[in-house]
Amino acid sequence: MIMADSGSSEEVAAIGSADISPTESENNIINTMVERGTALLRKMEINVAEAEKRTGKNTVNMQETYTVYLIEIRPAEAVPEGGVPATPDTLWRRYSEFELLRTYLLVTYPYIIVPPLPEKRAEFVWHKLSADNLDPDFVERRRVGLENFLLRVASHSVLSSDEIFFLFLTEEKGWRDAVLETGFQEKVDSRLKSLSAMFRVKNPDKRFTALKQYSDEMHAVISQLLRVRARVADRLYGVYKVHGNYGRVFSEWSAIEREMGDGLQSAGHHMDTYASSIDDILEEEEHYADQLKEYLFYTDAVRSVCKKNELIQYELEMAAQDLAHKKQQKEELETGTVRIFSLKGMTSKLFGQESQEQRESRLAALELSIQEEEETLKEKNTECQEFVRTAWGDIERFKEQKNRDLREALISFAIMQISICKKGIQVWSNAKECFNKL
Predict the structure, then answer these.
(1) What is the DSSP letter of 172?
(2) pLDDT tier at 397 (50, 70, 90 boundaries)?
(3) How many other β-carbons are positioned within 10 Å of the β-carbon of residue 398?
(4) If pLDDT is split at 50, 70 and 90, which confidence band does 154 have?
(5) Which terminus of the chain is more solvent-facing, meaning fewer CB atoms within 10 Å of its CB: N or C?
């Protein structure tokens, strides 16, 4: 995430009056993205240093072009003045490997809002922006997003200590085998079934219901915000490029004027510079849009936690229902009274009552089944309580992170817009000076 220090209004004004270069913005992404308080980030630095386009054969022996990303890790030790930093350990990863890691984290830690990956293909693009996933500018933004993902995971108190995540950072090939050994595929299949299953919880947790509704609303709001931003970018691009026409006209005009020629030529130069600056401006803006996209994708992670809570609550209710049914069967067998219609009751009426031995055998089997159901209900109740406790703790952590990130991102975006407007004022002020000299 790109974050500026929100500070006081005076500090914001001071920052707004200065030019913010793309390099400085990129440094903000790297340096203030996450809190580096976990044990892992105290021990090592993690970077996605570069991206590289490669060509090779896929699983069906077809030629394909893909992008790989260089992950660098090095000990997080202070380098003495004049010393040389430790040489980083490096390995290359494809985007699909990042996807595999995140899927593993989702099924292993269903109570955690797992950080999302950057988009695989560009969404909410304005018309001059390439939607090609091999476009260099898009690949660069995705590189930043993948580094952000790794740092998000590494800064999480639970995810950062996962052995598979550590192997992803350190073992180029062996980590896939380690994932499979965890029974990962069975967990994936089970998760897919639970996510696609249709069930209705009788007594849902109101907090998770409200959270799911909030997540849906936030998804809709951010989507609309990104659409608006894309439309604004289109119009802004047009306004800037039209200034290039001013530059051309002033330059042509200067050719037929003797006394006013120099002033007109200078004014045309300022207009040309202004028109050409929009490409860098909108490319920098894309980093701010990526921040919003991250939280757009976070909403899916929030809904995943809510869905898991619904599933656990449903299993708890089904266990309680099964236990109540078994106890009712026992009561009916002991009293000989059938409260509701059943095939067993109809059979007894048609063919006579069962013997005392049969009845006692059924009672013993029911008592054993009731004990097992009571144990199952106890386990499900404990599982549900533990899930709610751990999930809600992570939800509170996420809320603080979200509020901080979005507040600082929006402040930074506003500061950037102020800077852009000031540059436009400066261009016309310079043009005014040129006209004064005519």
Answers:
(1) T
(2) very high
(3) 17
(4) very high
(5) C
